[in-house]
């Protein structure tokens, strides 16, 4: 395999975005815009973010793009473009690498996204870095700093599924609905439809759940200078989630991460409309608490009448 035949193999045959001026094949890509542009990058490293023990190359590609799309959704943006930087060890053959791109192409086509560039270098360990871009109407990006006292807190989907799927894959132990959990881990569905539906709401604070809500709720509390009060029993989990031990349930739903669901806050007045939009976009959504004024930003969690502080305990690097 040489670098150029590889790039040719993974290139899209046709582009979808009307705002694209130049895609793959020049020194850089060009697109134009009249909206605000949202851009994000995330890097994925073999055996930290993914492993061939638990995934096919297809899932790796699907999932790394999903993580980026999830960040775009959390900003309220419509996904448009992505660039992929690959650091490739000699042990990976062209077929496996093309399968990674098939995973990306599959999810990209669901969101009309175009692959418009990237970089390919050799390395000791597989690393994939994706830069994604999307559009949001002028001044309508969703910030973590937009939560206000008296808002309600909501979460989409069910939390902890991805972590349950990972554990099932790593332990090889049988359990109820195991294919469901494995699928939630391998093929996450970022909540783009809801995020776009919410564009009509004047103020929503949003954060996507990549590290676990114990982290993301604290990020909203800090950015907005408020207290988030979460009721543990309201945190949505899958029906068969109760088969796992109490400790696992608590840890996975609050700190499991990689669910790529959305955590947000919105005024009480707008909450019924948010639920309607969630319905129309087939997005499970649930209120999980309230926002209060705070001297010190913090997150509290109430479990059967007992309240304690929920500190950041999701996934963190460099520790
Ligand atoms: N090495 C870095 N250099 C510059 N900015 C960074 C770096 N790492 C993270 N950031 C920025 O810090 C913020 C938080 O990043 P991160 O926790 O990765 O967000 P997320 O969990 O949504 O992916 C983002 O604005 C991101 O762009
Ligand atoms: C093989 C393997 N081990 C562990 C995990 C769990 N894991 C890896 S990264 C991560 C958190 C999200 O990654 P990060 O780089 O922090 O993403 P960001 O916050 O930038 O979106 C989790 C829960 C995994 N998915 N796969
Ligand atoms: Mg990141
Ligand atoms: Mg994020
Ligand atoms: Mg992180």
Automatic annotation (TrEMBL):
<feature type="domain" description="PurM-like N-terminal">
    <location>
        <begin position="25"/>
        <end position="136"/>
    </location>
</feature>
<feature type="binding site">
    <location>
        <position position="119"/>
    </location>
    <ligand>
        <name>Mg(2+) 1</name>
    </ligand>
</feature>
<dbReference type="Pfam" id="PF02769">
    <property type="entry name" value="AIRS_C"/>
</dbReference>
<dbReference type="Pfam" id="PF00586">
    <property type="entry name" value="AIRS"/>
</dbReference>
<keyword id="KW-0479">Metal-binding</keyword>
<feature type="binding site">
    <location>
        <position position="71"/>
    </location>
    <ligand>
        <name>Mg(2+) 2</name>
    </ligand>
</feature>
<feature type="binding site">
    <location>
        <position position="101"/>
    </location>
    <ligand>
        <name>ATP</name>
    </ligand>
</feature>
<comment type="pathway">
    <text>Cofactor biosynthesis; thiamine diphosphate biosynthesis; thiamine diphosphate from thiamine phosphate: step 1/1.</text>
</comment>
<dbReference type="InterPro" id="IPR006283">
    <property type="entry name" value="ThiL-like"/>
</dbReference>
<feature type="domain" description="PurM-like C-terminal">
    <location>
        <begin position="148"/>
        <end position="299"/>
    </location>
</feature>
<feature type="binding site">
    <location>
        <position position="211"/>
    </location>
    <ligand>
        <name>Mg(2+) 5</name>
    </ligand>
</feature>
<keyword id="KW-0460">Magnesium</keyword>
<dbReference type="InterPro" id="IPR016188">
    <property type="entry name" value="PurM-like_N"/>
</dbReference>
<feature type="binding site">
    <location>
        <position position="315"/>
    </location>
    <ligand>
        <name>substrate</name>
    </ligand>
</feature>
<comment type="function">
    <text>Catalyzes the ATP-dependent phosphorylation of thiamine-monophosphate (TMP) to form thiamine-pyrophosphate (TPP), the active form of vitamin B1.</text>
</comment>
<keyword id="KW-0067">ATP-binding</keyword>
<feature type="binding site">
    <location>
        <position position="40"/>
    </location>
    <ligand>
        <name>Mg(2+) 4</name>
    </ligand>
</feature>
<feature type="binding site">
    <location>
        <position position="144"/>
    </location>
    <ligand>
        <name>ATP</name>
    </ligand>
</feature>
<keyword id="KW-0547">Nucleotide-binding</keyword>
<feature type="binding site">
    <location>
        <position position="208"/>
    </location>
    <ligand>
        <name>Mg(2+) 3</name>
    </ligand>
</feature>
<protein>
    <recommendedName>
        <fullName>Thiamine-monophosphate kinase</fullName>
        <ecNumber>2.7.4.16</ecNumber>
    </recommendedName>
</protein>
<feature type="binding site">
    <location>
        <position position="210"/>
    </location>
    <ligand>
        <name>ATP</name>
    </ligand>
</feature>
<feature type="binding site">
    <location>
        <begin position="118"/>
        <end position="119"/>
    </location>
    <ligand>
        <name>ATP</name>
    </ligand>
</feature>
<dbReference type="InterPro" id="IPR036921">
    <property type="entry name" value="PurM-like_N_sf"/>
</dbReference>
<feature type="binding site">
    <location>
        <position position="71"/>
    </location>
    <ligand>
        <name>Mg(2+) 3</name>
    </ligand>
</feature>
<feature type="binding site">
    <location>
        <position position="42"/>
    </location>
    <ligand>
        <name>Mg(2+) 1</name>
    </ligand>
</feature>
<keyword id="KW-0808">Transferase</keyword>
<keyword id="KW-0418">Kinase</keyword>
<dbReference type="InterPro" id="IPR010918">
    <property type="entry name" value="PurM-like_C_dom"/>
</dbReference>
<feature type="binding site">
    <location>
        <position position="27"/>
    </location>
    <ligand>
        <name>Mg(2+) 4</name>
    </ligand>
</feature>
<feature type="binding site">
    <location>
        <position position="27"/>
    </location>
    <ligand>
        <name>Mg(2+) 3</name>
    </ligand>
</feature>
<dbReference type="InterPro" id="IPR036676">
    <property type="entry name" value="PurM-like_C_sf"/>
</dbReference>
<comment type="similarity">
    <text>Belongs to the thiamine-monophosphate kinase family.</text>
</comment>
<keyword id="KW-0784">Thiamine biosynthesis</keyword>
<feature type="binding site">
    <location>
        <position position="258"/>
    </location>
    <ligand>
        <name>substrate</name>
    </ligand>
</feature>
<feature type="binding site">
    <location>
        <position position="49"/>
    </location>
    <ligand>
        <name>substrate</name>
    </ligand>
</feature>
<feature type="binding site">
    <location>
        <position position="42"/>
    </location>
    <ligand>
        <name>Mg(2+) 2</name>
    </ligand>
</feature>
<feature type="binding site">
    <location>
        <position position="71"/>
    </location>
    <ligand>
        <name>Mg(2+) 4</name>
    </ligand>
</feature>
<dbReference type="GO" id="GO:0009030">
    <property type="term" value="F:thiamine-phosphate kinase activity"/>
</dbReference>
